[in-house]
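Dear colleagues,

For the upcoming journal club I promised to circulate an example of a predicted protein-ligand complex. I picked one with flavin-adenine dinucleotide because it came up in last month's discussion. The inputs are reproduced below in full, followed by the predicted structure.
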Amino acid sequence: MGPVGRHAVVIGGSMGGLVAARALSDRFERVTVLDRDTLPDEPRNRRAVPHGGHTHALLIRGRQALEQLFPGLGDELVEAGAVRFDPGQDLLFYQMGGLRTRFNSGELGISLSRALLELSVRRRVLMLSNVTVRDSTSVVGLKGSAVRITGVEVEGGEVIDADLVVNATGRGGGGPDSWLEGLGCPAPEVDTVKIDVGYTTRIFHRKPGDLHEGGLLYLMSAIPPHDKRAAAAFAIEGDRWMVTLGGWHKAHAPVDPAGFEKFASELPARHVAELLGRAEPVDDSDARKFTFPAARRRYFERLRQPPSGFVALGDAMCSFNPLYGQGMTVAALEALQLGRCLDHFGSPSAEMARRYYRSAGKVIDTPWQMATGGDFVYPETQGPRPVGNKIVNWYVKQAMQACQTSVQVHRVMLEMQHLLAPPTAVMRPATVLRALRAARRSRRAG
Ligand SMILES: Cc1cc2nc3c(=O)[nH]c(=O)nc-3n(C[C@H](O)[C@H](O)[C@H](O)COP(=O)(O)OP(=O)(O)OC[C@H]3O[C@@H](n4cnc5c(N)ncnc54)[C@H](O)[C@@H]3O)c2cc1C
């Protein structure tokens, strides 16, 4: 198959922009990625991606999609110090008052810092002979008309022509939206779900035996709706723990070490506090905080006439509550969809954009419903509540409790949370019966 166009420009060189560039490199003669930030040649946090210094879980489906785009990436990451784990066996997962039962799931996860993942993916993209990455380059406008985008303008006035422009500018994403509006394109409808999530993250040295139970990772979300706290300690490269404490609706952890430790010691499970008691901080001044007021979904798939030569991808389409760890996985799945749609239509036409938005919308539907559905456990959450949410949340609570005593229910929940199985998997009558029985067992055991 020949190329579908001569030149594609990707605005934004973060995880979304990089996976997009990879998909486009097979379909365009040339791809140029533009990012306003300086892109480091080491696993360092970036100024324009302040969330990059916080725990980033890569779902199993996301790891698979990244390996599809970059074969052999997993081995490279492990060589660089990332930690492989079985999410059923190695994860100490405390939820609803107890630890999930552990079992050999046969699935392979990978735990590392977001900075290392982004750097490794960027290096793979830079190895593609037809891709150029230009950093310190801010895009300030789009060129073209309401029916066809023909390129971008960068700071200083340079115009770069393109057959396709991809908006991967992230959650802010507003620049390209307002530029489109300036050209006469209608803005997409937006759903906003107010969750007031806050993260504080610190890094610690990691030694064998830091967690008595032998787990490599620990994840905790407390007992909603009264308790809004969550915690994660992830083993990352360099024999370190990345520990993130926080929660929904202003249940945020302090940044000072004493306050951080106090927050950990008051959690309903002891594991994080014990870990902090044993592990030495890498640097006391490294604590960082990030607040995330609302999840936001832009419905590009509802646009009747999107312009040709332009699509959005990643957080610019949908920015999920980070506590569910879905964003990078969804961006990689969208990149795969974009490649398929370009192959199908053979050009970056308006039909291609429409089809892409429809399929990206389907990719987003499930994680968006799972995340916002979960967020509505808290009465403080504001926004459009999914239909039937109260009964679904009641049942999900039973299924979460069931994970403490039933391997079968834990397996289904794990597959659903890692986007390997649809949410209907947990609604099958046999699973529902098993979950309700096991939840009773867990409550009796607890
Ligand atoms: C606190 C937090 C924790 C998270 N945890 C997880 C997790 O555990 N797992 C997970 O999968 N996801 C997580 N996410 C989401 C994840 O970070 C994103 O989904 C992922 O990075 C994809 O984002 P993106 O590339 O679309 O946007 P971003 O990462 O925001 O990058 C946008 C890029 O565009 C560039 N840019 C913006 N405007 C311009 C312009 N005008 N010109 C040129 N360049 C521009 C910026 O410099 C930046 O590099 C988390 C997010 C947050 C906020």
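Two points we might discuss: The chain is about 35% helix and 25% strand. The first helix runs from residue 15 to 25.

See you all on Thursday,
B. R.
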